[in-house]
Amino acid sequence: MIAISGGRAKQRQNVIRAVEFAWNYLMPRVKKCEIEITLKKLKDVQGYCLDCDDNQFELEIDSRLKGDDLLTCVFHEMVHVKQGVRKELKDVSYLEKRWKGEVYLNLEYSYDHPWEEEAYRLQEVILDAYVRKNK
User: 92-119 burial string, b = 16+ CB within 10 Å, else e?
Assistant: First the structure.
């Protein structure tokens, strides 16, 4: 189930299509997952993913994003959803995350964390596939 709020109607439609595409691309066999998306002005980030409960996620996406920037952000956050669904990434504590069995100190955002490396790599792969499909 996907629920969305905020932003403009066309923007919500684009985000829903992108989320559905990424879901089918990353987790085609997963049927039970709830994703609640809020489009709003964010400060210091373009988006984030919160793993709320077993297969329940909240995404916040900056409503000022447009075009490929919006799609790329959605795809990036959907990679984090996949990581949560597959139990690859889990919060151990406020300062620690477990990535594929290994605990990492998570004092601040870092592009070097392996879960972020995967998200940045796959966001481009998914964007390319999405653009090819929608030509």
Answer: eeeeebebeeeebebeeeeeebebbebb
